[in-house]
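Input.
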Amino acid sequence: MKNDFSSDNLTEYQQHYNEDGYWKKLGKIARKVGVKMVYYSLVLYEVLVDKATPAKYRAVIAGALGYFILPADILPDLIPAIGYADDWAALLAAVVYVSKAVTPEIKAKAKSRLTKWFGPVADEELGDLR
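Output.
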């Protein structure tokens, strides 16, 4: 496993992405990883399913989300406190790469999904993507 989450390297993991696997993993770990990481993954998901998203962005997002749901990665998810650090790094790298496609509508959809799991969330908890 590489720990270089450049856009080219992220696309290597896109074959691991599938929508069912994504929702299953996210539902299982949402409370463990917290609001911000869940929000960023939801933003990526919403960009991925947006028909206006360019193919090159879709490939990077599918790679990041594929890495996210991959059970065997650089830091196993079972390691307390740091097990999701590499998943977080992959999500952040993808968000930075596709930031031009992150519209206010995308953020609103992601936040709406987020509040279904966490209840009302203050914008400050969402980090730079609020």
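The two ends are 32 Å apart (CA to CA).
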